[in-house]
Design brief:
156 residues, alpha+beta, two-stranded antiparallel ribbon, 8 strands
Length: 156
């Protein structure tokens, strides 16, 4: 219940922050992705999970959100999503809905989340965890950030 309350407060805060879309961003479509992702905060992590009823792993979470919010079929694995998704995006140019990639294993890209604005991303973090909202500048994530991709051009 506490997590749901926090998630609701964050959604309200994001609504205010998202009132003005960044220049050039297709606001409605990318914000639909962010709102869908935030609505899943608290869903359990399940290895190979790809639905709210089953639970999610990181790439299953991203795949589900994009299919549900935008009708875009992304590949299943983190590596395939990195290779498939559109243009590379610098950390400074991130927009709502961009995919953010991390090396959590020390062996290359191994984790993905969805950027939701204001330096935050939503992801399914690990075994025993739940879908959650984190800061990109958090020491753990900042050290492991390897890049970002913009999906929007593949949807049009």
């Amino acid at each position: 219940m506490f997590l749901r309350s926090i998630a609701l407060m964050l959604v309200v805060a994001l609504l205010g922050a998202c009132a003005a879309a960044p220049r050039g961003a297709p606001a409605g479509r990318n914000h639909d992705v962010a709102f869908r992702a935030l609505g899943l905060v608290g869903t359990p992590y399940v290895r190979a999970g790809a639905s709210p009823a089953q639970g999610f792993d990181c790439s299953g979470f991203v795949q589900f959100v994009y299919r549900d919010a935008r009708g875009i079929g992304l590949p299943r694995t983190t590596r395939e999503q990195l290779d498939f998704a559109g243009d590379k995006v610098s950390r400074q140019a991130l927009r709502t809905g961009d995919l953010v990639f991390f090396d959590t294993s020390g062996q290359g890209v191994s984790h993905v989340g969805i950027y939701v604005g204001e330096g935050r991303f939503v992801h399914a973090p690990n075994h025993g965890g739940r879908v959650r909202l984190d800061q990109l500048e958090n020491r753990y994530w900042a050290r492991r950030f390897v890049g970002a991709r913009r999906v929007e051009r593949w949807a049009d």
